[in-house]
Amino acid sequence: MGTWKEELGTSNEAISLIQSIFTNVSDAILVIDRDGLIIKVNAALERMTGWTEEELVGTRHICEICRGMATCMEESTCTDCFFKQVQMPSFEMRLRTKEGKEFPVAASSAQLPKESNGKMVMILRDMSAQQRAEKERYQSKLTHFAIQAQEEERKRISRELHDGVGQALYSILVGLNVVGQGNLSDPIRQHVTDLLHMTSKAMEEVKRMALELRPSALDDLGLLPALRSLMKRVEKSFNIQVELHTQGTRRRYPAAMETALYRIVQEAMTNTAKYAQASQLGIVFEDREKEILVTVVDDGIGFEVDKALHTGKGLGVFGMKERAQLLGGTVDIRSAPNEGTTVIVRIPLPKEGIEDDHSRVNR
């Protein structure tokens, strides 16, 4: 291989500039001779592959580090290999490291002028971080659509339970009351009374299920009224004293934010009621300038957070965190055995349009 001056025919100043660029640029650069043998690499390629310049230059063929192009029709034979093209401004290939790992890189290649005797230059850029980011964005969108579809389905089933099954049970209850007022024998009257009791219990159960699926107060009145309704149900069902303290402006928030906050607090309260053996539960709702901060604290037996997550018992916790992350927020759970549990939820307020179609004040 000749000197840069001989090969490129440039001035000393230009040579110095080119060498500086070649050495310091963040993208990996390598030069290949007409047979595919690597004859020059920069420091970025060494970092990217794990091979040193001495291990690559003059000893390794490009095919030893290239594991195929994404545009190849037949990767095994590389029928459309970039090496057969005079210039390929953009393509994707898989690069093999010294340890045998493979990862995607964005690449471009071009043959040098004729006097270079068929040499080719390649520029490579690591795409693994970009692909991870794209995968995370795709996963986030997929999760958002799944949660949105779930909430719509909950709303539909809740409405059908209330308007369909609930109304049918109410009609049966009225009919049984009418029958019970007639001249009945004692056995029949007792049977009607039993049916009235069973129907009444079924109505309460349907109402409870409809509320659990999607409380109408959340859509009609807003987050705080829905939380107060949830508190009453928890107090009645689990004999836990629940208190809610609010700070800041009372207003409606975007529907997605209200739903996420309600579901997160609902999950936290349900976990407390079922597992914490708590007698008291406190909720502090703070409407701050740039975020909503909700803190849920109980005096229960607590648990080891990391252990619960690693053993797969924290699926509800994952759901809480996921809902918050979709809105750019966080859920922090602090607990220890015999020290109770604290759940801290932070959701940033949108810079514009804080109040969308839910622009009424919470009552």
TrEMBL record:
Q: Which reaction does it catalyse?
A: ATP + protein L-histidine = ADP + protein N-phospho-L-histidine
Any idea what this protein is called? Sensor histidine kinase
In-chain residues carrying the UniProt-annotated modification Phosphohistidine: H162
Q: What class of enzyme is it?
A: transferase
Manner of cofactor binding, per the entry note: Binds 1 [4Fe-4S] cluster.
Instruction: Give every PAS domain span.
Output: 14-65
Q: What does this protein do?
A: Member of the two-component regulatory system NreB/NreC involved in the control of dissimilatory nitrate/nitrite reduction in response to oxygen. NreB functions as a direct oxygen sensor histidine kinase which is autophosphorylated, in the absence of oxygen, probably at the conserved histidine residue, and transfers its phosphate group probably to a conserved aspartate residue of NreC. NreB/NreC activates the expression of the nitrate (narGHJI) and nitrite (nir) reductase operons, as well as the putative nitrate transporter gene narT.
* Modifications the protein undergoes after translation, according to the UniProt entry: Autophosphorylated.
Q: What is its EC number?
A: 2.7.13.3
Superkingdom of origin organism: Bacteria
Q: Where in the cell is it found?
A: Cytoplasm
Organism source for this protein? Brevibacillus reuszeri
